[in-house]
Amino acid sequence: MRKLQETLAEVRRINGLLPVCVTCKRILSAKGYWSRLEIYIERYSEARVSPSLCPDCATKLYPESFN
Fold first, then answer.
1. CA-CA distance, 46 to 4, in Å (whole number)?
2. Model confidence over 29-49: pLDDT tens digits?
3. What's the pLDDT score for residue 13?
4. Residues 6+ apart with CB under 8 A from 38
5. How many domains does the chain have?
6. What CA dihedral angle connects 51, 52, 57 and 62, to 10 degrees?
7. What is the CA radius of gyration of the chain?
8. pLDDT(15) > 70
9. Phi/psi at 64 (nearest 5 deg)?
10. Domain of 50, in residue numbers
């Protein structure tokens, strides 16, 4: 029963505002723990995270590939 209540609390948060650190992008759970965004998503949803680079980050990280 407790696990169900915890999961429901997270679902309510997902439907509302989620506290996300503007610097490291970690997310605050209903229990007060900070975790990486992709871990949070996989724990509280059916989604899976696929690591990728957006064009802006790819250009910054690998400028020689875009000249």
1. 16
2. 878 889 998 988 888 788 898
3. 64
4. 49, 51
5. 1
6. 100
7. 16
8. no
9. -65, -25
10. 2-66
* Cβ atoms 37, 31 nearer than 8 A: no
d(CA 7, CA 5): 5
CA dist 48 and 33 (Å) reads 21
Tokens standing for 27?
A: 């997310």
3-class SS shares of the chain: helix, strand, coil, % to 5: 50, 5, 45
Tally the residues of the chain: 67
- Distance separating alpha carbons of residues 16 and 22, to the nearest angstrom: 18
Q: Which of 17, 16, 19 is nearest to 27 (CA)?
A: 19
Under DSSP, the state recorded for 40 is: H
Amino acid at 9: A
